[in-house]
Protein 1
Amino acid sequence: MSKQVTLKLGVEKNLKDITVDIADNTPKPWDGGDQLKFIGGKTSRNDGMDKVSGKAKYTFDIQLPGMLHAVFLRSPHASAVVKSVDTSKAEKYPGVKAVIPVKEQWPMAVRFAGQEILAIAAETQHQAEEALKLVAVEYERKPFVVDIEKAKNGKILVFDETVEEKKTEGDAPGGAAKVSQKGNVRGPRTNGNLSQVDTALAGSDVVVEATYTTQVQTHSAMETHGVVARWDADDQLTVWASTQGTFSVRDELADVFQLPKTNVRVYTEYMGGGFGAKFGAGVYGAMAAKLAKKTKAPVRLMLNRKEEHLAVGNRPSSVQTLKIGAGKDGKLKAIKLLSYGTAGVGTGAGSAGPARVMYFTVDNIFTEESDVFINAGPGAAFRAPGFPQGAFALEQSIDELAYKLAMDPLEFRKLNSATDLVRMAEYEIGAKKFGWEKRNPKVAADKGPIKKGYGMANSVWYYITGAGFQAAIQVNSDGSLELTNGVQDIGGGIRTVMAMVAAEELGLQPKDIVVKIGDTQYGLGPASGGSQTTAGITPAVRNAAYLAKMKMFDIAAPLLGVKPEELDLTDGKIVVAANPSKNLTWKQVASKIPGDKFTVIGERLKDHLEVRPRLLAGVQFAEVEVDTETGVIKVKRVVAVHDCGRPMNRLTLESQINGGVIQGISYALFENRLLDRNTGLMVNANFDQYKIAGSLDMPEIESIIIDVNNGQSSTGAMGIGEPATVPTAAAIANAFYHATGVRIRELPMTPAAVLKVLQG
Ligand code: MOS
């Protein structure tokens, strides 16, 4: 059964009435006409005190009685065959309880330095590490290739047979099987009609073409990957995991050990960042559970920083040749991208997303992407996979084309996104806040060695959400209430947002709501990937709160001598809507709950309204200073304007945008995985030489979130984590051009790279 409601939908204050069908027993979706008390405002994190005081326990902090510590032996060679392994000495080392190889038998191929060979569990971490040194491994070393250009010629093969099918970020769903492979090159995956695009380019009045390269970035989450695993019975496994997906870890472990899902319980009460590399159980998860099974003791296996850089994911590199064309009137006619990149021994080095969807009204778009295998650790999804890479190329080309047409880059973008109302609002608001009109239309206007520049770039990302998530609310007869779901908080602040949503619906305060998450015994929650956590779970929470409210109305109605539909809930009171002086407090009504409590379950239904386009926009403006003598780029100011549907908590949203900009600056200027071509080893697998932006590198960041009411779910929330990092490097590069009159088409923009381009 469904009912019809009319919603006020649109961008900022431009709202239109739209009538939609929504499911019975769900609330009227929040829309542009609703003035809400908490939603859209700023609420401090309800777990902030626990985090800063150290009371919050991360997987890293879990200590269990009798717990063993496990470490991996990893290959020191980029390419080798493990012929045999002798663990007899290691097994006799004091404190050692178990040694388990990752494969049942030798020989085993090793394809990157850092690949797991075996794991040891001992009473202390130190004993396990010492025992590792006693393992004798016979390696037959093989030629390796870590340079992408060298790998392309296929003289040294990373895989001697075709890689088995994997679902990867670069492939269309189900498309992996269709991708061909030749030598070390997997692909190309193409999209669009090449000859049509070439014709459109030939017919363009203005064309720019250039090649852009981007580096490999490692995720570098503060908390490394890892688990603590404990068997409570032969068929009952409990795991604490630093993960972005409690349920995906549960499902994978259930699969590995052939257990019913309900026999595996995963906890992630707190976790220290993931950025896309923490969805599965990992080799470490399965290995910790195997060691725990064998030793009949809990096992802790947390990776160290070096392992983190080598083996558990990175943002693939890219080499992108991009050609775009426009008419004299400034209308984009065609986009053609030929790209390849490396995800090491993994796949997913695509970067065509922005070229395909940023200017979605362009008729002629052709993209081609290939993965080039090298002997290095596998890539993984990383905060908007492929998009910061793609935006770095696309948004610089757009900038270049604007200059060639003698158009302001902002005006050029406006002309080419005119139908995208969200983006148009963001241009307006961002340009004003940034002071774009103060920008000198001339490039390289400063005479001295330090040159100032203004640049901008667009973001784009998908609106992604799942359905079927279930939030439970238990109301107790003392008036307290508990909100539960298995979702994990990867840092976005979902615990707080869940409390805000429930409080809003129930007329209570966020602090009144006890939120329990990060436990697979609770209802299904979304994995925190694709920026879908808030969009996924908040409608379930609101729908649960709505059901709890209805239940409270049923109890209150006879006490107040009215019908349930005549009641309202506000400020901790259940009131007769027509006569608010007739009321009962929340606690008074709760005390009449039959039995001691009730529980309701709210579900995240499929969107009742399709959002077109299914995209998130965003625009960032950057001001830089380039020291042309030292090559140092200093980012002075960033204004970031983003949309995420209906904003839930502006405080945690701003924090996400700040984080995206910070990570974007770090990617733009510093981070770079360096492999030694002579040894095949990563030379900066630490935090000293793998430079990440610090507080002194930070500009003033201004985050602005615009209000977009799409009315697609009961809360209208969408994502922010990924789009916030997509355009930062491109905006800085465009500001660099404005400052110097020179294009920098290579990341990271280190002083050496800057001096190189300045010297021509
Ligand atoms: Mo993300 S790269 O889907 O965590």
Protein 2
Amino acid sequence: MSIKKILKMKNKEKIAMITAYDYISAKIAEAAGIDLILVGDSASNVMLGNEDTVKIGMEEMLIFIKAVKKGAPNTFVIGDMPFLSYQVSESEAIKNAGLILKAGADAVKLEGGKHVAPLVNKMVNYGIPVMGHIGFTPQSYKQIGISSKGKSKTEEELLIESAISLEEAGVFSIVLEMVTEPVAKKITESLSIPTIGIGAGRFCDGQVLVWHDFLGLNKDFEPKFLKRYLNGFELFKEAIENYSKDVKNGIFPSVENVFNPVEGSDQK
Ligand code: KIV
């Protein structure tokens, strides 16, 4: 996958993106033929147990990005820019975006609308591919609240304006998070770059879901937009219970799992 191919998919083929944070998950995602992998700053919640994405930094993100690229060397990987890695100064933002690319990502993603467009334009001019992210932007939840965006005319206009200014700044795609379906449709139809929705309805050019959410590992997270494809938490729990029982009952390890078993032992 390349940016050229991603752009060509618009109006031809829907784009499937998921998040991943580690080597084996990335390997599974690549084996499944996923179009794009996002190493999201949602790692803060699902990998590190924090209550928000504000608490993750560059150091941790770089570890996750390196692991994912090792597991999925042939898949287009996007690395999220964590909170305060691009807000403080333009030079810091460009340096951090560069570190994310050096860690193996093929592009970076950052949150924000028209106010980040000048920064995005600088990055793109320096050869850094950027994915935008508007609507509900989790890094600013303390300011904007956790709710869908685009319900009022003012919000709708701001979102459309932001999407257009990001496209003009040079992003190759935009994530629309928790944007009302009519507004997400309007944005998608106004842009020549693909939109990737999460909780933004059916008309985006692609969709993204978080690994732990769609695989049912994040048991207590059940927003309306989520579809679970596995009951991961229960399946993992059952496997651990079975292993634990086998150990306690002397069923594991059996003779097949043993190097040089004791001769004459009648244990299986
Ligand atoms: O961090 C993340 O996982 C994201 C997706 C929800 C788009 O930004």
